[in-house]
Write a structure and sequence with these properties.
Blueprint (H helix, E strand, L loop, with lengths): L2 E5 L2 E4 L1 H7 L29 H4 L6 H4 L17 E3 L2 E4 L9 H11 L5 E5 L12 E5 L4 E6 L2 E6 L10 H8 L7 E4 L8 H6 L3 E6 L2 H13 L6 E5 L5 H4 L4 E6 L8 H5 L3 E13 L4 H10 L2 E13 L2 E10 L1
Parallel strand pairs: 4-5, 9-10, 9-12, 10-11, 12-13
Antiparallel strand pairs: 1-2, 3-4, 5-6, 7-8, 13-15, 14-15
């Protein structure tokens, strides 16, 4: 395993060394390479493929299942499912257990590129923020997910990945400039970190799920951003203890129930620096939340809803400028 730098008792490891080493990743980076990759302009290319061709496909399952599922059971069927690469993820309630195979066959018949159909049988849980799935069709949960010119390899059963945020990831990456120093806590397999690095920024990505770190290292290699990104395998909650530098931009895809993280990570943001902070709230809470962020010393330059996660609850993003 190649060591390219150290900070205190934390070793800085090049992503390729992570792959070659095969062991657990101890950490990383206070030294970063700034070499600009030719691929850094891909994000803003007018030729990038459409989001709906490669990320989230929403299909009206109820229409497809008419005549197969009795009408009195149809309200139990969700009208949407998610596609991650060539894996379709659907949530089938117990009332429709007898129709699971029919639903899987119908999804595959309408989407020729689907190789595996998974039934999500639990909510996100545990430190890894992953759900439990059962395979309805196919034999593998590994996939390549393509998004705005980038490729992410992952195992849906091992890591958290949300295709619904593809547009949001593109929006944020389009704001990143090559001179920036960017922090991405809770980075997962890299869908926020990789585009930022491809834009030429120096990126530190933090993730505590060892499986996600392994896939992240692979995605760094696949997308050719080895020289601009470094990964810390550790709990992002301890960011202020692991890092002694400040950042121009922090991208925080916050896990549910961790709003308190903003106060800690704000210590790592330069004056006039930007925080893209994601949270889960009801509509009526937003006005007070804007005031709360202003009282914390941020200017709220932009915010929007990024999709619903539960009845009445949505994911929101706030672009916050530190004053």
């Amino acid at each position: 395993m190649t060591i390219v730098g150290t900070y205190g008792n934390i070793q800085s490891i090049h992503p390729e060394a992570m792959l070659a080493g095969g062991g657990s990743l101890r950490c990383l980076t206070m030294q970063l390479h700034r070499k600009q990759k030719k691929s850094s302009n891909r994000l803003l290319s007018n030729n990038c493929k459409r989001e709906d061709e490669h990320t989230l496909f929403r299909m009206t399952l109820r229409c497809q299942m008419k005549g197969i599922i009795p009408s009195h059971l149809m309200p139990h069927l969700s009208n949407r499912f998610e596609i991650i690469g060539d894996v379709a993820v659907v949530s089938i309630p117990h009332e429709l257990d007898d129709y699971r195979d029919d639903i899987a066959r119908e999804i595959i018949s309408k989407r020729g590129n689907i190789r595996t159909v998974l039934n999500k049988v639990s909510k996100l849980a545990g430190d890894k923020r992953i759900a439990e799935f059962e395979i309805l069709s196919g034999d593998s949960t590994e996939t390549f997910h393509r998004e705005y010119g980038y490729i992410y390899k992952l195992d849906v059963k091992e890591v958290f990945f949300n295709g619904r945020l593809s547009f949001e990831r593109r929006r944020v990456a389009s704001m990143v400039s090559p001179s920036e120093h960017v922090l991405v806590p809770f980075c997962g397999v890299g869908p926020f970190a990789v585009p930022a690095a491809a834009s030429g920024a120096r990126v530190i990505a933090i993730e505590k799920n060892a499986d996600a770190c392994r896939w992240l290292a692979e995605n760094i290699r696949i997308n050719g951003v080895n020289d601009n990104i470094s990964v810390i395998k550790g709990d992002a909650v301890n960011s202020t203890k692991m890092l002694n530098c400040t950042f121009d931009r922090v991208i925080v895809p916050t896990p549910y129930g961790m709003d308190s993280f903003l106060k800690n990570v704000s210590l790592l943001v330069k004056k006039s620096g930007m925080v893209h902070f994601y949270t889960f709230k009801k509509q009526y809470q937003i006005e007070d939340l804007v005031k709360e962020y202003q009282n914390m010393g941020f200017e709220v330059s932009f915010y929007r809803r990024c999709g619903n996660v539960a009845p009445g609850v949505s994911r929101w993003v706030f672009d916050l400028v530190k004053q």
